């Protein structure tokens, strides 16, 4: 995972107001939300439905991972304890015609995807149960669970879901967007391991979708389609037998390489430091690890941290990118998937370098993240019924460009349209026919429109939300 950092340091300034595409700061849809909140307070009680001043309200309103999503003020926040509460919430929101948002783990960087101003926020921080059923050999997960929580909680039983690569990421959002995992080369995407999904539709009806029942089309749509098709209140997923904490069956860790790059553009020149951090794991012995990754190990490194690991330790190798003490930041993403030929790999790198220079005054570092998608992963996915985005055969890398803007030299109002214009996401190269990874693409890239099953997705959406309530009243993936 290369990242670029300027050699000089910059100051950090807090307390800026962001006005961004997708963020509802300027919208006025107060009356329906007030109606919904009043009704919900009566139905569920003030411990589950809180407005400003409530014990949990402020922590939730400002608790999203990304700065873009920390400034909105919901009319009320619903803290459901079970599926029945979500049914009541969604039914009331629907009949009140209120704007709303849903937050699972809260890790989205997309403005407005997990927050709302003058609307109803459904916060799943009180639905964090998970359990392993040894008879069914499956794991049940509620939507507020973080990947690290389920990994830690089930390690004594030697199982884990196909989950995220960073502990602080929520399982729900990860899996609904497809879900790349350290287990993916052998186990597919996270959503490939869905068995059953309890889903509250936009009109408040609760259904259970599986691959074989009457809601099989909804089941497929939720395998990568994101938040547009309903609210999943419980996941049943395959249990992957990864071993306990005592089972050091993996070998690997990180290798760091330092490169000094001299950059000269028409508007800027200088020396930048590029650090390539490669994260490598192999489910096998040290000898097998060294044989498989011999080319990487031959690169001169400034630091290595390799050794035997349990799967739970693998999950802790990558620390959350929002590091303590690093200051407030707003993260902009750009995603790409491409075949390495025809110079596209080099073009992708040069685009990232150009973007980094373009934001030299606002970002202390930027990231160009490469995740290989192997043919074995595609084969496993197809064997499990495929997804809404199933790619064609042929392995390829998935790229994401991360630009954490630490607000070092912004004016008092950050106008995100200017940021998007300067990022010029459309310039990121992509191979036609390959789907973008929803979780690591900017919303303006319209990832759903790149899916192989896009036309079918639109048909399924019309079936389950015929009034287009979700699209009209909730910020989320574009294209439906």
From TrEMBL:
Keywords: FAD, Flavoprotein, Oxidoreductase, Signal
UniProt xrefs under SUPFAM superfamilies: FAD-binding/transporter-associated domain-like
Coiled coil: none
Transmembrane segments: none
Domain FAD-binding PCMH-type stretches: 70-242
One family name in Pfam for this protein: FAD_binding_4
Signal sequence residues: 1-25
Gene Ontology molecular function: any one: oxidoreductase activity
Superkingdom field: Eukaryota
Family according to the record: Belongs to the oxygen-dependent FAD-linked oxidoreductase family.
Protein name: FAD-binding PCMH-type domain-containing protein
Organism of this sequence: Hydnum rufescens UP504
């Amino acid at each position: 995972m290369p990242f670029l950092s300027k050699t000089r340091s910059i100051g950090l300034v807090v307390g800026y107001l962001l006005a961004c595409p997708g963020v509802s700061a300027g919208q006025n849809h107060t009356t329906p939300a007030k109606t919904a909140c009043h009704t919900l307070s009566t139905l569920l009680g003030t411990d589950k439905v809180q407005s400003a001043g409530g014990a949990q309200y402020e922590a939730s309103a400002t608790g999203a991972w990304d700065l873009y999503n920390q400034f909105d003020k919901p009319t009320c926040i619903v803290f459901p304890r079970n599926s029945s509460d979500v049914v009541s919430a969604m039914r009331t929101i629907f009949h009140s015609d209120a704007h709303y948002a849903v937050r699972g783990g809260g890790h989205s960087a997309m403005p407005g995807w997990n927050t709302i101003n003058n609307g109803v926020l459904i916060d799943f921080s009180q639905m964090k149960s998970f359990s392993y059923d040894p008879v069914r050999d499956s794991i049940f997960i509620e939507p507020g669970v973080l990947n690290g929580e389920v990994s830690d909680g089930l390690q004594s039983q030697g199982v884990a879901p196909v989950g995220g690569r960073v502990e602080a990421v929520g399982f729900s959002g990860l899996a609904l967007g497809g879900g790349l995992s350290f287990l993916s080369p052998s186990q597919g995407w996270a959503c490939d391991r869905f068995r059953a999904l309890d889903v509250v539709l936009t009109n408040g009806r609760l259904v259970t979708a599986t691959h074989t029942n009457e809601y099989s089309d909804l089941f497929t749509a939720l395998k990568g389609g994101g938040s547009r098709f309903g609210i999943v209140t419980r996941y049943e997923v395959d249990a992957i037998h990864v071993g306990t904490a005592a089972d050091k069956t993996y070998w690997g860790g990180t290798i760091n390489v330092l490169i000094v790059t001299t950059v000269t553009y028409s508007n800027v020149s200088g020396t930048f430091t590029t650090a390539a951090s490669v994260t490598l794991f192999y489910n096998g012995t040290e000898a097998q690890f060294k044989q498989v990754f011999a080319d990487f190990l031959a690169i001169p490194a400034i630091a290595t941290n390799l050794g035997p690991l349990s799967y739970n330790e693998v999950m802790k190798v990558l620390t959350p990118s929002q590091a303590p003490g690093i200051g407030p930041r707003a993260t902009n993403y750009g995603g790409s998937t491409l075949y390495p030929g025809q110079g596209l790999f080099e073009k992708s790198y040069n685009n990232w370098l150009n973007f980094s220079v373009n934001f030299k005054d606002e970002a202390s570092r930027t990231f160009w993240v490469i995740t290989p998608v192997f043919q074995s992963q595609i084969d496993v996915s197809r064997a499990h019924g495929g997804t809404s985005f199933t790619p064609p055969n042929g392995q390829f890398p998935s790229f994401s460009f991360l630009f954490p803007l630490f607000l070092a030299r912004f004016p008092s109002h950050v106008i995100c349209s200017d940021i998007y214009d300067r990022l010029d996401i459309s310039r990121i190269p992509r191979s036609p026919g390959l789907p973008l990874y929803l979780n690591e693409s900017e919303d303006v890239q319209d990832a759903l429109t790149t899916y192989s099953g896009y036309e079918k997705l639109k048909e399924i959406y019309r079936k389950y939300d015929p009034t287009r309530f979700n699209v009209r009243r909730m910020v989320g993936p574009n294209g439906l």
